[in-house]
What we know:
Radius of gyration: 29 Å
Structural class: mainly alpha
Order of helices and strands: HHHH
Amino acid sequence: MMMPANFSAVSENEMTYVMGGSVADYLAPAMGKKEWSNFSKNLVTIIGNSYLGNFVNNTLGVIFSGTYVPGDVLGMFGSNISDVWGKNYDDASTKSKILSGMAGVLNVGLNIAGNLAAIYNLGFGTVDNAAKGAKIAEFGSDAVVM
């Protein structure tokens, strides 16, 4: 009997898979452009959420504090950046100044990126209204809006 040139008789226990069959093919398919875009959006949202409260306090909280003076908002951000720098910069030695200065620049940059992520959340997210959960206390108790 004549067999094709590429035919090889192999017993079942000698068979190996040369294409596919990997666990990674089933559990972790390759991420495409859509998935990486979603990953980036979610990452920015998570970072923005962690900075959102501080950002709102430094902007709207300052403006509506009752003692607002133009320029106070920038002063609050300047104060935050100064605090971040102070927690990183060490004035002990030249080597220490260089390394801690690099850490300070990195962390100030990350702080600014976090605030920009908070702005992104405010631009693309939906803010929940706290009034939807407001209730009036029962009659006979202190009539307080909760």
